[in-house]
Amino acid sequence: MRVFIVAVGSHGDVLPLLAIAAELRRREHAVTLAAPAPFAAMAARADLPFFAIGTEEDYRLAAAEAELWRPWRGVGAMFRHVSAATEPVYRWLAANAQPGESVVVASTLALGARVAQEKLGLDVVTVHLMPLLAGSRADPPVLPGLPLPERLPARFRHWIGRGADRFVIGPAALPALNEFRARLDLPPVQRLRRWWSSPQRVLLTFPKWYAAPQPHRMPQSLQVGFPLADRFGDIAEPEPAVARFLEAGPPPLAFTYGSAMSRSQTFFRTALRICAELGRRGILLAPQSGQVPARLPDGVLHVPYAPFSRVLPRCAALVHHGGIGTVAQALAAGIPQLVVPVAFDHFDEARWLRRLGVGAALSRRRFTPGRAAPTLRHLLTDPRVAQACTAAKARMAQEDGVAEACDAVEAFARTIRPPAG
Predict the structure, then answer these.
(1) Termini Cα distance of the chain
(2) Strands of the sheet with 30-36, listed across from one edge
(3) Span 238-246, mean pLDDT?
(4) Which InterPro entries does this UniProt record tie to the protein (predicted)?
(5) Alpha carbon 341 to its chain's center
């Protein structure tokens, strides 16, 4: 089977697809990965042929855009950069993939793959990494920057979400997409969040115990476990300095604000004050330069990157932005989480963590030592939180989201290429 995997986004969007690609290649399928240029080295370590979407400078400029990290304005900024990838992805697939002979596995924002499906008849599996993208009338997601109380009727919250489609997402995404589609003699897309899911197969890569399946209009969807993929990142094992730090004292608090966030100085300054307030050691994970103070107190370590699966099980708690990949790693480690959401799905992930009893959330404005320290103290000492974290860890140990996703891709391929005879 020839598989073309397309991942558009940052580490949290790309690494799960990279892990699926690597496992499919291990199963002896011919796999090629398309992703932003900075992921070329990671693909090479996984021995995956690679097609670069854009340049490293394109990726750097996108991550540095201030508007990207604002709840509502971030949607427009994101789709400006996503639109630039649509035509290159389409042209790459048109030149390499064949209907009936290839399977395309595409992340949500790989819009060029959906265009290729419609224009060229390619067989496409869409991968939605987070519950926000599944949609539900019965239990609508929490939208970025619009944390409506859950006591409001679900029907009303769903109606507000439809308004976001019409007045925020549509104007940001559809003009460029429909201009490209017009050049291909394709009709315009009216509602992006209905169109971007393949009508053939959709994988929802979060387990049912995390976000229970809800009635929705995607009968072609299949729910699998979290595709844990941190070891496919910048490095597979922690640096020796990290191992020495973890062994030198009690479990630290871990802080991260995501791989692409370049305006997290206030977050990390607050992290230092929280560590001092609670008398805890801390490990600050920040790949972007200039985010962490140059001089750190004793008992606090800064590292650009470390695989969470190796670090978090030895930490006391994790404070982070709310990305779904980070959420999953902390669940696997069995530690409580404090979410300080920025944009996108972060607000919705905080809701699921609260429901599970494993975490809490504070807005960026309310993320101060005076509020965060007592919140963390509660998460670290409440036996009910500890019990919920232990239960989540046990559930995570029983599943393999990457293998489940690959099984689903192989099963899909068999439906489009029935066995001979």
Answers:
(1) 18
(2) 50-53, 30-36, 2-6, 102-107, 123-128, 201-205, 221-224
(3) 92
(4) EryCIII-like_C, Glycosyltransferase_28, GlycoTrans_28_N, UDP_glucos_trans
(5) 13
**Under 8 Å between Cβ of 143 and 163:** no
pTM: 0.92
- Contact indicator for 109, 13 with CB cutoff of 8 Å: yes
What is the reported pLDDT for 231? 80
